[in-house]
Amino acid sequence: MLFGSSAAVCGAVVALTIFGRAAGSEIGAVHSSDVVNAACGDTIVGAASMYNPFKPGKEEGGPSTASGERYDRSAWAAAIKTSLRRKFGGVEFGARPKYALVEAAGKKVIVKINDVGPLRPGRIIDLNERTMSYFDPSLQLGVINDVKVSPLAGDYWSPGPVS
Question: Where would one find the signal peptide in this protein (predicted)?
């Protein structure tokens, strides 16, 4: 129950921070400081890899994500480690996707967490192709170490790079 009330308070603070700054002006890109201030809960640090259920591999899931959406390689999306599902407020069939700030190699991106998965040991998040190519344009690394993932409160985020 403590987590639920903390998330609600954090969400209210985030909404006031972001929408308060936007009052009287056009809403533009989300700035890094707004997103960092919106991060709720503990930051998780670990490795990230890429997944695509349409590529051959015995460990890939099906075309539907845990939220019920179809996998979209062109979206800014990711699958979180199954044991971290509660930390992100669920990620269940039919539920609204959750959002997270992912940081690595000096870059930041907001992703929609719409799937969970049995990731390999040490990995905390699987990025879809678009998100992985943001951090690794050649898609040759396979794994990115020292990735920071922070849950974001609320469901009003626009996934994509953070300036």
Answer: none
Question: Which whole-number Å values give the CA distances from 10 to 13, 22, 89, 106, 163, in the listed order?
Answer: 5, 18, 13, 25, 22
* Residue-range domains of the chain with CATH: 2-161 (2.40.40.10)
What pTM, to 2 d.p., does this model score? 0.74
Measuring CA to CA, how many Å separate 132 from each of 28, 50, 80, 105? 24, 6, 14, 12
H-only helix segments in the chain: 2-22, 32-38, 129-135
Chain segment 3-20, per-residue pLDDT in tens: 444 443 344 333 333 333
- Outline where DSSP puts E strands in the chain: 44-50, 77-81, 98-104, 107-117, 123-127, 143-152, 160-161
